[in-house]
């Protein structure tokens, strides 16, 4: 089969089984767009801004586990994609991003729409390639998909100069069946001696704690994690990225931990004697003050990336490997040993956790005549039976979604945890809806975040991706306002959005349904009505209490037990 | 503590900037960095001299290993090794000073590799400390130009860094 470079690009995507490609055309990729036009296997989703393309591909990837694919042109097309690439990199999401480049002879001459995108993206990709030779195209695609999806996943950029895709130059095409790289061999199985040591330590624990992160979602290890946790009867907390890795409605789940974690999760972290960290990276939003992180605990850490181990917190038993097989090995070892942890000690530990839980740290004012954002999320959770795919933007609404929407399954919670990219939610929701057309897909956002990629409302109409947008509109960049209240004596410097658009009219202008809800009594009926409109994108503009804050809060530089709780929460001294 | 890390990496365009970028992005020190192709033209060998606590050095080696272009590396400072740096020094050498400079070069086993009526270029090889000592032995006002290659190194004995 003789193909041009452009046809090879498309054929490689077909051979990788790519279903959707998210992109925006431009000069340097027109040959590729022409090749896309002549086929139907790979469906192209035209976004309205390249950032949206990367986030949509990212949402697709997070919700399916398959790599997301992006196609953008050179120069501004590629630089617009950088935020999305960095977002995926921080959360280890597999993306393959194809960027057009100016023709080889003019590279380096400051040509029209030229940008050194390999250089620009180098610090925020797992790897990147500049393909200078058409004969290297197929091999590069094979490598790119392999690198993006194996080990600790991540985005890979393939930069292709326009002349490499010249329709008049054809070469024989064959997609490589396998790939091996001498410099890249991610380890899968954990070291048996390390695993044995870890199991010994877990079985000897008196105040154990399991802390699991995004690695459990990425590594498809939710089943193994659940089995192990139940087998041992240990309490478990999830990071923001790890939500859904263990059923949130289960008794053993103590909530999210960290900056906006629950009282019981953070207190249990502070007091535990053995900590099992699974696919989590001890991020600063999780650990708080490093010097006082789990001060009395021996720490076991399972991670596929050796560089994540002992990066910020020194661990006692490191285990490098894919989380699912390592957890399976642990389960096997525990079962064959016939041993169980000290039941008396565990009972006392659960009693203590029960005391912390009784504080009910996520309580909020239910009698207010203003809409409480927490209430909206709770109602949404009830009405969707906790089973929706939820994409969120970044800020207070993200934290409330994480706290009040209890995810029982992995890959249903999609948010930008690492980079914290405002504008992520809507395009991500579109990507999710394409992958799961029969499922309910919700975008939980705020009036500030949604405006950062609002143009994708047009994409949602064009491809009939009826997502439900829950806009928690408090008229502020809420998280910024909260920090300014707590840390800057309520000097609300530029965090108030004075000229908000009429979101109802805006949604209607884009061809969608718009709703404004400003009374608590209307919250549930509005959600019900929106959810009934199966084939429409609905923008629900909830006017919420502008003074509401996210609690609990561990401020930067504080330790887990130094939480700021909602006003009126009485902490018994005995308890703390 | 000072560490010398030897790295075999794919001899591809951009590989050097991946390493250099890693050091700047993560705030690691680079005292010197040298790179050249090896016998195997598909591989380059890089020697990085860096410093930091044990935790930082552990992170540096892990992060380097994580780069797709890095094939293998060894921290030479963990084993018996030899390190060398090449330095060329241009010095003012006139009248009576010419003999003095030549004697000094001999003491440091340096070679004079360029001569004019008013200057020498002296080539000296050795560990960093030896080169520093040679520079100190010369009079500042005689120094015209100094160029150093940065340190390279190799393990002692039969053991080596191969693919």
What would you note in describing this structure?
The complex is a heterodimer of chains A (576) and B (163). Chain A folds into three domains: 2-172, 3-Layer(aba) Sandwich (Rossmann fold), CATH 3.40.50.970; 192-357, TPP-binding domain (Rossmann fold); 373-543, Rossmann fold, CATH 3.40.50.970. Chain A contains 20 helices and 20 strands. Chain A has helices spanning 5-15, 30-37, 50-64, 76-90, 117-121, 137-149, 192-203, 214-218, 222-232, 263-271, 284-287, 323-337, 343-357, 373-383, 396-404, 425-435, 457-462, 478-487, 503-509, 520-532, and strands at 2-4, 20-24, 43-46, 68-72, 95-101, 127-130, 155-161, 170-172, 208-212, 236-238, 253-256, 274-278, 298-303, 317-320, 389-392, 413-414, 441-446, 468-473, 513-517, 538-543. In chain A, strand 19 (513-517), helix 20 (520-532) and strand 20 (538-543) form a beta-alpha-beta unit. In chain A, helix 1 packs across helix 2, helix 3 (50-64) packs parallel to helix 4 (76-90) and helix 14 packs parallel to helix 20 (520-532). The longest helix of chain A has 15 residues, at 50-64. Chain A is globular and about 75 Å long. The mean pLDDT of chain A is 96. In chain B, strands 5, 6, 7, 8 and 9 form a five-stranded antiparallel β-sheet that branches. Chain B has a four-stranded antiparallel β-sheet with strand order 2-3-1-4, covered by helices on one side. The radius of gyration of chain B is 19 Å and the shape is elongated. The mean pLDDT of chain B is 95. Chain B is an alpha+beta fold and 163 residues long. The A-B interface holds A 118-119, 122-123, 126-128, 130, 147, 181-184, 305-307, 310-311, 314 and B 9-10, 13-14, 17-18, 21, 25, 55, 58-59, 62-63, 65-66, 68-72, 163.
Number of helices of chain A: 20
- CATH topology value of the largest domain in chain A: Rossmann fold
What is the C-level CATH assignment of the largest domain in chain A? Alpha Beta
| Global mean pLDDT of chain B | 95
